Amino acid sequence: MKKLGEDKLTTLQTTGILVGFTMASGLLTLPRVAVEASKTPDAWISVILGGCIAFLAGWIIVKLSQTFPQKTFYQYVQQITGKAIGKIIGMLVVIYFVALCAFEIRSVEEVTSFFLLEGTPAWAISAPFMWVSLYLCMGRIGAIGKVCQIILPITAFIFLIICLLSLNIFELNNLRPVLSEGVMPVLKAIKSTSLTFTGSECLLIIICCMEKPEKAMKVIGSGFGITVLFYTTAVVMCIGAFSVEGVVTRTWPFLDLARSFEVDYLVFERFESLLLSIWIMQIFATFSIGLYCGVLGLSQIFNTSYTKILFIVLTIVYVISRIPKNINEVFSLGTMIGDAAILLYGLLPLLLLLISRWRRLR
C-alpha cells in the first residue's frame, strides 16, 4: 500500500500543475501590463513571443531535471555544485517560492475585498484560503495534481463562455493596423509578458514525481500552449473591447471585460463572479504548488519533517503578505518576484546544465 505523498503524477496532472502555476494573477492584469509596455494594439504578439521564451526556459529545465532522474532540484543541485553552494542556491529557490505565495495570497485579498467581500477583514479572507491549502499540501504532490486536473477544464469552460459573450462589445478595428509602429514596441513588451509566464520552475521539483518523466517535453508544450492561448485571447478581447487607451486605465482589465456585458436569457446575467471564481481557483493552485515546493525544499535541505516545516512556512508567508501597504506595492512585489524568476530559472538552470555536462565529460 502506498504511503502518503508517494503518488506518481500522470502526464495530464503534471500539465494541470504547470497551467495552474503559470496562470495566476496575470489573467486579470496581463492586458494592462502588456499594453502599457508596448503602447500599441500589437501587445498580443508580445504575449506569444513571451510564451515562446518561457517554453525555451522550460525546455532547459526539463533537460536538467532529466539528467538526474528520481531527484528534485534541491538534491541534485548539491551534487552539481557541492553541498555548501547547493544549499545556498536551494535556499534562494525556497525564498522565491515563499515570496511568490505571499504575493498570491495578498492578490486574493485585494481583489476579493474590492469586488466580492467589501469591508471584510484581510485575515478573514486569507485564513480559510491558507487553511484549505495547508490541508491539500498535507497530501503532497499527488493530491495537488488531482486538484489541478479538476480545475483546468472548469477554468477553460468559464473562460470560453466569457470570451464568446464579450464578442458583442468587441471591435476588430481596435486591433488594426497590425504592426503599424513597427516591431520595436512589440519587442519592448516581451520582458513584461515573459514575466507573466514564469511557472516552469515548478518542474524542477515535480518531474521526478511523474509516472513517465520522458513525457516532460509534452507537458511543457501542452502546458504553455494552453496558457499562451488563454493569455493571448484575454489581451485581444480586452483591446478589442476597450481600445489601447481604455485598457491602460484599468487595474484589472479582463475583470472589467466580464462586467461590461449582461445576458438576460441565461441563469447568470453578470459574469464577473464566475470569472473571479476561476481566478481564485487558479490562485489557489499556484499558492498550493508554491507552498509545497518551498516546504519540500526546506525539508530536504535541512533533512527535517515536511509537516512541521509546512506550518512554519505558512506563518512566514502570511507575515510577508502583510508587508505591502497598498495595491501599488503589491504590484511592485510581483515585479520583483518576476525579475528574480528570470535570474533563478532563466539563467541558473542553463548554467547548472552546462556544469553537469562538463563534469560528466571530464
TrEMBL record:
Domain of life, per lineage: Bacteria
Bilayer disposition of the protein: Multi-pass membrane protein
Keyword GTP-binding: no
GO terms, biological process: spore germination
InterPro entries to which the protein is assigned, alphabetical: Spore_GerAB
Cellular component GO terms, alphabetical: membrane
Keywords (A to Z) from UniProt: Germination, Membrane, Transmembrane, Transmembrane helix, Transport
Cellular compartment(s): Membrane
Transmembrane segments: 12-31, 43-64, 84-105, 120-138, 150-170, 190-210, 222-244, 274-298, 305-324, 330-355
Keyword Chloroplast assigned: no
Matching PANTHER family: SPORE GERMINATION PROTEIN A2
Family: Belongs to the amino acid-polyamine-organocation (APC) superfamily. Spore germination protein (SGP) (TC 2.A.3.9) family.
Name of this chain's protein: Spore gernimation protein
Lineage: Bacteria, Bacillati, Bacillota, Bacilli, Bacillales
